[in-house]
Design goal:
This protein has about 100 residues and is mainly α. The protein has one domain. The chain has four helices and no strands. The longest helix has about 35 residues. The chain is extended, with a radius of gyration of 19 Å.
Length: about 100
């Protein structure tokens, strides 16, 4: 298969066989979603689902908007470095929180 630019696509991009596709966060989100909604009463479930999707969409869109504005002001390279450093710091904080809870 060939992309619109004329370059060949990797096999995993168009393979119907799931064993050759790269892993995604979909199953993790679905598991957390099911576990969280199961804890809510039927009357609270709609509000909970709405809150989950609002937070998810904001968590994905707000950093992208900030990076877009920052790249026009500071340049793409500087913005990418700051985004990478911020993501590494968040990952370190998450790892340390997980270590404190487990240990």
């Amino acid at each position: 298969m060939v992309s619109p630019a004329g370059t060949p696509l990797p096999q995993a991009a168009h393979s119907p066989d799931r064993s050759t596709r790269p892993p995604s966060a979909g199953p993790a989100f679905l598991g957390a979603f099911r576990m969280t909604t199961a804890l809510a009463t039927p009357g609270q479930r709609a509000g909970l689902v709405t809150a989950i999707f609002i937070v998810t969409y904001l968590a994905l869109s707000v950093p992208a908007l900030i990076a877009g504005v920052a790249s026009t002001t500071f340049g793409l390279h500087s913005t990418a470095l700051v985004c990478t450093a911020s993501l590494a710091a968040l990952a370190a904080v998450a790892a340390s929180i997980g270590r404190v809870r487990v240990g």
